[in-house]
Amino acid sequence: MVAIMLILVTVSAVATGILPAGNVAAASSSMAAPFGSITGSVWYDANGNGVWDSPAEPALAGHSVYATRLDDGVGVMTLTVLTADDGTFQFPILPYGEYRISDSS
Question: For residue 25, what is the DSSP state?
Answer without folding.
Answer: B
